[in-house]
Write a structure and sequence with these properties.
single chain; 1031 residues; alpha+beta; eight-stranded mixed beta sheet; 27 helices; 32 strands; globular; binds zinc ion
């Protein structure tokens, strides 16, 4: 049964003029055409498919020897069982480990309830932001609490001077939506601030919080006269009018009176509170439905039966029992799965289970893998599947007695019985036809004129010589099993024979780019160590070989085709590293023309800019996935190169797209080399199929990521690395039960870097509730934004952006209105009440709406928009959080003795100061902003120059000055860069100099340079919508 749409028509909703085009609904933006069509090149369904039956049951007697397992890497061949320590029983009473424990307790688990900070947070679960309008002072919420409480309550603490008196260097405040008495350009929500029944007054008014020295009396009458007429249209056109918002902002600017930013929820405060209460602790995953620490909180995670949040994060850890409830709340039910996430060295790597020829134990009906959700019965002879309830016989080799509480005696010896995540060695049944060969890396360098001239070819060749030493290998192996090959190209292709016994590499030219063939098999893909001298010889020669070339034209699709054919011929999966610079205009398949048309921006045809201009790349991507060929693309464009077309194959094959605009050797070299090194070395699985199984009552319905789907269930990935996440949306089929919860099992079948076929299993149990309040209590805003971003960015291909923006705004209002109506305690209608778990949803949602992908502005490069769209599609929760809400750190207050990062400040101009130095990072860019009155000793310390005026901003690396400030700052930058998939290029920005405009785009709480509301304005807009819904 499809519940596509979850069309939002909660009982309270009213027809809304202006947004009737597309009722808000999450995930599915109504694009029937996008369901993947079979291509006839499906991977073998294999045992991942529900139809596979062979190999599930033990053939005859149990295989000799114990069922082996060991940790990945050094002990891949297995340990004797006793070596497996089991989940460390930290305060681990037996029952706390039982996955089936009914969740009578609050869904806020242990640690959080013991913290005074969060205790207070939960008292404030119905947070009041303001209650202006009829002169009502907001009721006090008890004693002023720590941090969040004070800053979130009204009346606010006295605003800081810097906010109220921004000073001359501050951008003019946005036309305000909050109007003081006597001015009301802004149409305001139709609500009755007095709580009386009857028709609302034609207009009601936000009022500013009391300013210092000002009392908020009852005398703030609704401003009816001068705003009534413009109301309807302007008010409701908000989402569409988003970029400039002229309609919404109509009227004379009201710069003086505005909502105190300190009185609205602060992302920084939420992050800091979570750090204070949960940071540095051990988070054990022994309880179903428990809410993990935020992605911004460092802690140690201990797998005790559910997958670590490093692998799976959910939009909510408590699903509603019925689809009606889900429709009512409109909270997306989704999981963001990062199956190969990096595990820090102080946490256990995944254990590897090897059942020999028997293969993994699986449910006969639904094919779920043995996991902590299987319940053993009948003395251990049978087990009931937690997903489909089927009762299965325990295979003889797997039999074990039960203890007095019905648990197998070997419970803690078997990872698959006691852990949330582990791996299985896959049997032959899980291979295409025979065991796979180890993968290969093919380096493909564009040697056209511009790349030779700017030195890029020489740089790549030079650096590869050292980087190839670091090709991933199994821990216990001396050398990598990954073979390497080399191709150069412009409008023809050059293959190289680098066989170890050659004195000189040999080049073979393929000029028929219409139908690429591989001119050599033997000697093309080689072991790096064996062929090292020939390879180095080749890399030395390549820059000279093409030094005199005047060839400007390039091909692109034939390059990918050549790499894929080479892998196919060698019968192995692999990864192509393509270094490319220009629009491929040479006569060949996939030839592109410049079709960048800014006139399409802000029209219904804008989506065309995000679509590939030919279907060549789409079918090429399908071919690549079918053959386990992943494509990573390094782009060095100096003008439009059609990223939407060139990036499609990397996107669909689990590769990565890197882009260096106007590459300049002295400025961009380091960023590129860091990216290349990181990409070569990162952990990766090849030729993967992922399957997400669920317990009865719900199922996975939509998938977002670097993936390809040939049917509705198998997620195919040519490769998946440690930074890539797949976001999965779930819908109800039926009712869910509070007792059994909602169980998820994600299985990824893949080929390791040494050519072993494996299954990686992640299990996660969520709670279910028939109370909406439980659902809201268990939400994770960071995961919600990840989901909304991916579903919106997918919809961009098919729908007008205006519609998408409207859906996002409306859905935000619906989610919050539903909470207000059903969960919050009664209060004046004029109050904006947000659930504790979604306090920062509005600010993050506004950041998403302001992202250049959704912002229809001709000033922004089409390629940049296509690029960012693609990046976000594969992001995990931590990366999307930083991307949409950058980290802004004050550097001038550094404690040079501390190794802690300074506390971040909110991304707003008002937080900067002339005397300050700030570091901003969003995962792609890093800025060091210098106030005009920055302390000279800091400038000296960091730049080794005497004054602000002496600083040369034309640098992307800080000088290494042997000064504590310099060392500390560079260490901080290192920490921020750590664990991030892209190397961030540093830009030095001086206050009041032109490049500051770029920097200001990242101050996401302010009104955008190219449009996009300020946080305050957006919050008011959402509040208006909520009030309409509630009326
Ligand atoms: Zn089953």
């Amino acid at each position: 049964m499809s519940q596509q749409g979850y069309v939002a028509t909660p009982p309270y909703s009213q027809p809304q003029p202006g947004i009737g085009l597309s009722p808000p609904h999450y995930g599915h933006y109504g694009d029937p055409s996008h369901t993947a069509s079979p291509t006839g090149m499906m991977k073998p369904a294999g045992p991942l498919g529900a139809t596979a039956t062979r190999g599930m049951l033990p053939p005859g007697p149990p295989p000799p020897g114990p069922h082996q397992f060991g940790q990945n890497g050094a002990h891949a061949t297995g340990h004797p069982p006793q070596r497996f320590p089991g989940p460390p029983p930290v305060n681990n009473v037996a029952s706390s480990h039982a996955p089936y424990q009914p969740s009578a307790q609050s869904s806020y688990p242990g640690p959080i309830s013991t913290s005074s900070v969060t205790q207070l947070g939960s008292q404030l679960s119905a947070m009041q932001i303001n209650s202006y309008g009829s002169g009502m002072a907001p009721p006090s919420q008890g004693p002023p609490g720590p941090l969040s409480a004070t800053s979130l309550q009204t009346p606010p603490r006295p605003p800081q001077p810097s906010i109220l008196q921004p000073g001359s260097q501050v951008l003019p405040p946005p036309p305000t939506t909050l109007n003081g008495p006597g001015a009301s350009p802004l149409p305001l929500p139709m609500y009755r601030p007095d709580g009386l029944s009857g028709p609302p007054p034609p207009n009601a008014q936000y009022q500013p919080p009391p300013l210092p020295g000002q009392t908020l009396g009852a005398g703030y009458p609704p401003q009816q006269a001068n705003s009534g007429p413009q109301m309807a249209g302007a008010q409701l056109s908000y989402p569409g009018g988003f970029p400039g918002g002229p309609a919404q902002m109509a009227g004379p600017p009201q710069p003086q009176k505005k909502l105190d930013p300190d009185s609205i929820p602060s992302p920084i405060q939420v992050i800091e509170n979570d750090r204070a209460s949960r940071g540095g602790q051990v988070y054990a995953t022994n309880t179903r439905g428990q809410i993990p620490p935020l992605v911004t909180t460092d802690c140690m995670i201990q797998d005790q039966g559910n997958a670590s949040p490093r692998f799976i994060r959910c939009t909510t850890y408590c699903f509603p029992c019925t689809s009606d409830m889900a429709k009512q709340a409109q909270i997306p039910l989704a999981a963001v799965i990062k199956p190969f996430a990096t595990i820090p060295s102080n946490e256990s790597p995944l254990y590897l289970v090897n059942h020999g020829e028997s293969g993994p134990v699986r449910c006969n009906r639904c094919k779920a893998y043995m996991c902590p959700f299987m319940q053993f019965i009948e003395g251990g002879r049978r087990y009931q599947c937690g997903f489909c309830n089927c009762v299965n016989d325990v295979p003889p080799f797997y039999f074990q007695h039960l203890d007095h509480i019905g648990r197998r005696l070997d419970h803690y010896e078997k990872p698959e019985l006691s852990l949330g995540s582990y791996e299985y060695v896959a049997t032959l049944d899980y291979c295409r036809s025979k065991p796979p060969n180890p993968p290969a890396f093919i380096f493909m360098i564009d040697v056209s004129y511009s790349n030779i001239k700017n030195g890029l070819v020489k740089l790549i060749c030079e650096e590869l010589k050292t980087m190839l030493e670091k090709i991933p290998k199994e821990e216990q192996e001396e050398t990598s099993a990954i073979r390497v090959g080399f191709i150069t190209y412009n409008k023809v292709l050059h293959f190289f024979n680098v066989k170890s016994n050659l004195a000189q590499p040999q080049m073979m030219v393929v000029t028929d780019v219409g139908e690429v063939f591989v001119p050599l098999l033997d000697g093309f893909l080689v072991n790096y160590q064996e062929s090292q001298s020939v390879i180095h010889n080749l890399l030395d020669q390549i820059p000279d070989m093409f030094a005199d070339s005047n060839e400007n034209e390039t091909v692109f699709a034939p390059v990918i085709q050549a790499g894929m054919e080479a892998l196919k011929a060698a019968d192995c999966p692999g990864k192509l590293f393509i270094f490319h610079s220009s629009l491929p205009t040479a006569e060949a398949p996939g030839k592109l023309k410049n079709r960048d048309d800014k006139k399409l921006v802000n029209t219904d045809k804008e989506k065309i800019l995000f679509q590939p201009q030919t279907n060549v790349y789409d079918s090429l991507a399908k071919d690549c996935v079918a053959h386990g060929c992943s494509v990573t693309l390094f782009l060095f464009p100096s003008q439009y190169v059609d990223v939407a077309s060139l990036g499609l194959v990397p996107q669909l094959t689990g590769g990565t797209l890197y882009k260096y605009n106007n590459f300049q050797m002295h400025l961009d070299r380091q960023q590129f080399l860091n990216d290349l090194r990181n990409d070569i070395e990162k952990k990766i699985g090849f030729d993967a199929i992922m399957r997400v199984r669920t317990s009865t009552g719900f199922r996975a319905t939509d998938f977002f990521g670097g993936i390809l789907m040939n049917n509705t269930t198998d997620v195919e990935m040519a490769a998946i690395d440690c930074d890539k996440a797949v976001t999965v949306e779930f819908k109800h089929d039926d009712k869910l039960s509070e007792d059994s919860g909602a169980l998820i099992q994600c299985a990824v079948l893949y080929t390791t870097i040494s050519g072993q076929r494996r299954l990686r299993i992640h299990n996660l149990g969520l709670n279910c509730s028939s109370q909406l309040a439980d659902l809201y209590k268990s939400c994770e805003t960071d995961a919600l934004i990840n989901f909304f971003a991916k579903s919106a960015f997918k919809a961009v291909l098919h729908q007008p952006l205006k519609v998408i923006r409207e859906i996002l705004v409306n859905q935000t209002a619906h989610m919050l209105a539903c909470y207000r109506k059903n969960c919050a305690s009664p209060s004046a209608a004029s109050q904006l009440i947000l659930p504790d778990s979604m306090k920062v949803l509005p600010v993050y949602m506004n950041c998403l709406l302001k992202n250049c992908v959704l912002l229809s502005r001709p000033e922004i490069s089409t390629d940049e928009r296509a690029y960012q769209r693609q990046l976000v599609m594969t992001m995990g929760v931590a990366d999307s959080q930083l991307f949409f809400y950058p980290q802004l750190l004050p550097i001038h207050t550094l404690d040079v003795k501390s190794t802690m990062l300074p506390a971040a400040v909110r991304c707003s101009e008002s937080r900067l100061s002339e005397e300050g130095i700030f570091l901003l990072a969003n995962g792609l860019h890093m800025f060091l902003w210098l106030g005009v009155s920055s302390p000279p000793e800091l400038i000296q310390g960091i730049f080794n120059v005497p004054s602000f005026a002496h600083i040369n901003t034309d640098m992307t690396l800080l000088p290494e000055v042997g000064n504590p400030y310099s060392q500390q700052l560079r260490m901080i930058m290192g920490i921020i860069q750590q664990k991030r998939p892209y190397s961030m290029k540093l830009t030095i920005v001086k206050q009041r100099e032109q490049p500051e405009m770029v920097f200001r785009q990242f101050l996401v709480e302010d009104k955008g340079l190219y449009g996009g509301s300020s946080y305050v304005d957006f919050l008011c807009c959402v509040h208006k919508e909520i009030c309409q819904l509630l009326n």
